[in-house]
């Protein structure tokens, strides 16, 4: 597998693990000291365990999600890489039998590092561009 293929596979595995609620799988996609940022927030999360905990708090209350990636642009220099791609994310809650939905489209900006031959996400910045539906669906407190 080429480096580009391995990086695309890593990102596909990451979003597959999001939808499967596989938090150990998510952690394995992330560098140990990875950073997660959401451009709509002034807070960042550091470390693969803290990021997995954040994602668990957001995803576990949901009944269904589907994350899709496209349009990969990848630059590789030695054991470091940068990637940008589009993301489309669907989120559903079935409160009282009536579905509430939130769909968002945006961009991922990702920095990756190769360690022991494997690529891992070192920094992931999510930048929303548009959304539709009830944003409270993805709030851990809703």
How far apart are the first and last residues' alpha carbons, in Å?
Answer: 42 Å
| Unreliable stretches | none
* Largest beta-sheet details: 6 strands, mixed
* Shape category: globular
Give the number of domains: 1
CATH topology: Nuclear Transport Factor 2, Chain: A
CATH architecture: Roll
Counting DSSP E segments of at least 2 residues, the number of strands comes to 6
Helix count, DSSP H or I runs of 4 or more residues: 3
Helix content: 25-40%
Structure summarized in a few sentences:
It contains three helices and six strands; from the N terminus they run H-H-E-E-H-E-E-E-E. It has 142 residues and is α+β, with helices and mostly antiparallel strands.
Can you offer a commentary on this structure?
The chain has 142 residues and is an alpha+beta fold. The protein has one domain: Roll (Nuclear Transport Factor 2, Chain: A). The protein is built from three helices and six strands. A six-stranded mixed sheet has the order 2-1-6-5-4-3. Helix 1 (3-20) packs antiparallel against helix 2 and helix 2 (23-29) runs antiparallel to helix 3 (48-59). The longest helix is centred in the first third of the chain and has 18 residues, at 3-20. The chain starts with a helix and ends in a 9-residue tail after the last strand. 19% of the residues are buried. The model has no long low-confidence stretch (mean pLDDT 94).
